[in-house]
Amino acid sequence: MAVSIAVETPLRDAIRALVADLNAHLRPLSPPEFQFQMTAEQMAGDDTTVFVARDDAQAVVGMGALRRHDASLGEVKRMFSIPAMRGTGIGWRLLQAIEAEAIRQKLERLVLETGGTTGFEPAWALYERAGFTRRGAFLDYPNSEFSRFYEKMLPR
Question: Any idea where the N-acetyltransferase domain is (predicted)?
Fold first, then answer.
């Protein structure tokens, strides 16, 4: 099955539904105060680029976003693929698209926060395979056992 990845608005119904699926997936994995979700409206801001993966039938099967914080720092946000597509490389392709966009925007560094508890092991493996290294809390995220933080320096 071929999958295409493109920049899209998160305000489409199918992408809103995927955001809701992601939130439902995360809900049982960590306490609500340690879930740092962006709404579709927040994702539609000028500081965020949303990448959407679609299958041959044009169904939405995954997403990820790049949120630019300043001229040098970008954050990977809202990485998710539907359960039926996990393990097919969609997450890798979305992450590569995000990194390419960060480089295009001349950002120096990417950071991300993901869950720190059981259930997030596939995410940790993806980020580490892509060259992200663990680091401490950044921006306004609290340091807790429920979060794991990563960063990656980008080529100049």
Answer: 5-155
Question: Rounded to two decimals, what is the model's pTM?
Answer: 0.94
Burial of 61: CB neighbours in 10 Å, binned 0-12, 13-18, 19+: buried
pLDDT at 119: 87
- Residue numbers of the chain with a pLDDT score lower than 70: 1
Query: Fold for domain 4-153?
Result: Aminopeptidase (3.40.630)
Please name every residue paired with 6 in a beta bridge, in sequence order, or none if there are none: 52
- Sequence-ordered strand ranges (E) for 4-123: 4-7, 48-54, 60-68, 73-81, 109-115
Question: With contact defined as beta carbons under 8 Å apart, do 149 and 137 qualify?
Answer: yes
Q: Whole-number mean pLDDT of the chain?
A: 94
Domain boundaries, given as residue ranges, for the chain: 4-153
